[in-house]
Amino acid sequence: MRISVNFLGTMERLTGQPSLELALPDTSTLEEAIRQIGKTFGGKFPPEIWDAKLGAFTHRVKLFMDSVEIDDLAQRLQDGSELLILVPVAGG
Hints:
Layout: E1 2-7, H1 10-15, E2 19-23, H2 30-41, E3 50-51, E4 56-57, E5 62-65, E6 68-70, E7 82-86
Parallel strand pairs: 1-7
Antiparallel strand pairs: 1-2, 3-4, 5-6, 5-7
């Protein structure tokens, strides 16, 4: 299956690209997609958003699959899905 991954805001700056397409086995989960993203970009992410020991994003990173926020890493992906990854920013 193929899914599109869109990096928004800080994530786009850190990865150096706005999006990418991932090719994954048909039974893949969100956790497997994140693991693959980590293999490619994990070294570019600061520890505030990437836990290198766990190979996962920290709680500061928000994930949306097909416009719905998700936090269940066991969620199965579907061919053609769109994953949005962003770090919310607050300011004043």
